[in-house]
Design goal:
Distance between the termini of chain A: 51 Å
Strand order of the largest sheet of chain B: 1-10-9-4-5-6
Strand order of the largest sheet of chain A: 18-22-21-20-19
CATH topology of chain B: Glutaredoxin
Number of helices of chain A: 5
CATH superfamily of chain B: Glutaredoxin
Distance between the termini of chain B: 44 Å
Largest sheet of chain A: 5 strands, mixed
Mean pLDDT of chain B: 87
Low-confidence stretches of chain B: 1-10
Low-confidence stretches of chain A: 1-44, 455-465
CATH class of chain B: Alpha Beta
Strand content of chain B: 15-25%
Number of strands of chain A: 35
Largest sheet of chain B: 6 strands, mixed
Largest interface: A-B, 65 and 58 residues
Shape of chain B: globular
Number of helices of chain B: 7
Strand content of chain A: 35-45%
Helix content of chain B: 25-40%
Mean pLDDT of chain A: 88
Order of helices and strands of chain B: EEEHEHHEHEHEEEEHH
Radius of gyration of chain B: 17 Å
Oligomer: heterodimer
Structural class of chain B: alpha+beta
Number of strands of chain B: 10
CATH architecture of chain B: 3-Layer(aba) Sandwich
């Protein structure tokens, strides 16, 4: 079926002059990079913090935070840099890897607001690895490892989302060190790696001023996104260490364990970092994506266990509510929606489902009535999706969690790049992470050399950290 | 590329900002010091300028031609100062400091001319440095990364940074372009004004 391709319409923020886009960067790169620092912009390049510089042209690299696999290569978690520029001789190949010395259940990561550093977490150990991506965008280096996240945070386990705030990083947790269940919090650090504060998710006994609007106030956590112009932050909920480190087959056979999944989305006062309202969103709402456009006061999430798209939306009275707006595949077959990617115009939503290895595209121009318009099987299993700012390039990875990935021949581990012409996805390249002895690829983030072009000789040195 | 939606600087929606004192600002880091020169040509230091006040430090350069860059920062500070006029007691505890990172062109005289566009209040200091060498450690302390902007003659690429510093010289908030709003900034200043105990806590935190 023919649909209109996500276009560059409305892409960000022409109200910026270049000198503000390129703090550390240089505007001869302007064709490739913008700082999408407008408060009404957030999503991928697509799912990045609105406080961060964005690449709106051709990305040079895809950074892939990759779980180490026992017996495969060095067996360590690693940041894999893939050459993604079609004009490069190395297009579609691994340009660089940097291993971190062990396995930590590598999962998610994110850039600081100045995009100089990439923070990546281990869900098992709680270690946080900080990579310098500005000195040489093609060869990131590990410059600092935070090994005391759990202790500093007061017991938050499983650093997950790394969300850039001005001069700071906000990190969601998945668990805690007391019972390794789902109760958790969000933790804030300076860009330099100094701990600042912990904000625990509201529970019945500690609502912290939040309104419990439904049946649940479970205190679970997963992802977070912000709508700064509404002073709103939205967090979702997954499950604790006991579950996400358990073998998937064993987990689904354990009825008690299956009860221990998050059923809430929390709407926060962004500036005060205080919870405002706890919304019932049953079935483990995972990734959160907030709309880009200035009058779109809503965010999307998808529930892993109930296979639905939910809209978290503000009404005319300024109150926030959650509404299930669409099914994703056949919920009875447990497709397990895992990652989503919102287009820059808020028109299209890509949804990856792990079990059937497929991606689905929904027309969300009416956010209350999403309509599926495309579907393609990418592999035997599928997890993350990242799209370029113009929506013309999509990248997919395969791994969910070390103990949840499929077994045997279905345990495909790949990065695949596709072109989207508005009608079909066409594969551009694929990298077999098992054959390359790299591991299990998870989150992807984009890099561009032009972001970090060095100062000309004789120029005043760029201030360091 | 046309940007949809509100004009730049619309910032946070009316009524969406939390009330002063309803939240706490974290102790982010100790605010750095450094040698600077006032618009009167007097040598001093940042810490002397801070002098036990709540400080809003804005890093700018006067030749910045981006209306949404340094001029926007200075305009926002001016709006914030105007909001503070309604609370003279709090206003007397606040100092604005605009520091240039372009010492070659931003002489004390240039800072005087620039400052007149935004304020005649002597509590707002428009300062510069003697040299790039004097400037560099200050920029490093505050994490302000700059580089030459070949798109504009003599321009500087930079991420807009404004710092809120408490009376014990702790950075309590950092603002970038998308986060700089006179209502939020004013409320943050008032929040610091209401909670000196937290200032003490920051001073004792050892950061």
């Amino acid at each position: 079926m023919a649909i209109t391709a996500p276009s560059a319409r409305g892409v960000v923020v022409s109200t910026f002059g270049f000198q503000n886009f390129f703090p550390i960067f240089y505007p001869w790169a302007a064709a490739a990079v913008f700082l999408a620092a407008s408060p009404w912009v957030s999503a991928d390049e697509t799912c990045q913090s609105p406080y961060m510089a964005k690449i709106v042209g051709q990305e040079d690299y895809v950074y892939v935070w990759t779980l180490g696999a026992e017996g495969l290569g060095d067996g360590q978690d690693k940041l894999v840099t893939v050459d993604a520029n079609p004009v490069s001789n190395g297009y579609g190949t691994v340009a660089h890897t940097v291993s971190v010395g062990g396995r930590n259940e590598a999962h998610h990561g994110g850039f600081t607001d100045d995009r100089a550093y990439f923070w990546a977490g281990g869900l098992d150990t709680g270690n946080i690895f900080i990579f310098d991506v500005h000195s040489d965008a093609g060869k990131p280096t590990l410059v600092k490892t935070l090994t005391d996240f759990v202790k500093k945070s007061g017991g938050v386990v499983g650093p997950h989302t790394f969300y850039a705030m001005p001069g700071r990083m906000l990190i969601t947790g998945l668990s805690n060190d007391r019972d390794r269940g789902g109760r958790t919090g969000m933790v804030e650090y300076t860009n330099e790696g100094t701990y600042l504060a912990t904000y625990w998710m509201p529970i019945d006994a500690e609502l912290a001023g939040a309104l419990k609007s439904g049946r649940h106030a479970d205190g679970y956590g997963y992802d977070v996104r912000a709508l700064p112009r509404r002073n709103v932050m939205v967090s979702s909920s997954f499950t604790g260490w006991n579950n996400y480190m358990m073998d998937f087959g064993k987990l689904v056979a354990d009825p008690e364990a299956m009860k221990r999944f998050g059923n809430t989305v929390v709407v926060w006062n962004l500036h005060a970092r205080k919870p405002r309202k706890v919304l019932d969103v049953p079935g483990a709402p995972l990734e959160v994506r907030c709309a880009w456009q200035p009058n779109h006061n809503y965010c999307f999430t998808t529930t892993a266990l109930t296979s639905k798209i939910w809209l978290i939306h503000e009404d005319t009275q300024g109150d926030w509510n959650a509404t299930a707006v669409a099914d994703i595949g056949d919920a009875a077959k447990v497709p397990l929606p895992v990652d989503i990617s919102l287009s820059s115009e808020d028109d299209w939503l890509w949804v990856d489902t792990f079990s059937d290895g497929s991606v689905r595209l929904f027309d969300i121009r009416d956010p209350f009535h999403p309509r599926q318009v495309y579907e393609k099987r990418i592999g035997a299993q599928l997890n993350m999706v990242s799209q370029s700012w113009d929506g013309k390039r999509l990248y997919f990875t395969s791994s969910l969690l070390a103990n949840w990935d499929k077994k045997g021949a279905d345990n495909e581990q790949f990065l695949k790049a596709y072109a989207w012409d508005g009608k079909v996805l066409t594969e551009r390249f694929a990298i077999d992470f098992t054959k390359e002895k790299l591991g299990r690829p998870h989150i992807m983030r984009f890099g561009a050399r032009s972001l970090y072009t060095k100062a000309p000789p004789g120029a005043v040195p760029i201030a360091g950290r | 590329m046309a940007a949809p939606g509100p004009a730049w600087g619309a910032g946070i929606a009316p009524g969406a900002a939390p009330a002063p004192g309803s939240y706490r600002l974290p102790c982010i880091e100790s605010a750095g010091d450094g040698s600077v020169v006032t618009s009167h040509g007097e040598a001093t230091t940042l810490h002397r300028l801070y002098a036990g006040r709540i400080v809003v430090l804005s890093l700018i350069y006067t030749h910045c031609v981006d209306a949404q860059g340094c001029p926007w920062a200075s305009f926002t500070l001016a709006q914030t100062a105007r909001r503070l006029e309604g609370d003279p007691r709090l206003a007397s505890r606040v100092r604005f400091v605009s520091l240039s990172f372009d010492p070659a062109r931003d002489t004390p005289e240039a800072m005087v001319r620039y400052g007149r566009s935004f304020s005649h209040d002597p509590a707002w200091a428009f300062v510069t440095t003697r040299s790039p060498e004097a400037l560099a450690p200050i920029l490093a302390d505050y994490g302000q990364r700059i580089g030459p902007d070949p798109g504009t003659a003599g321009g500087w690429s930079h991420l807009l940074r404004v710092f809120l510093i408490d009376e014990t010289r702790f950075v309590r908030n950092i603002y970038s372009s998308s986060f700089l709003d006179p209502v939020l900034l004013g409320n943050d200043i008032a929040t610091l004004g209401l909670d000196r105990n937290q200032d003490v806590a920051c001073a004792l935190s050892g950061k």
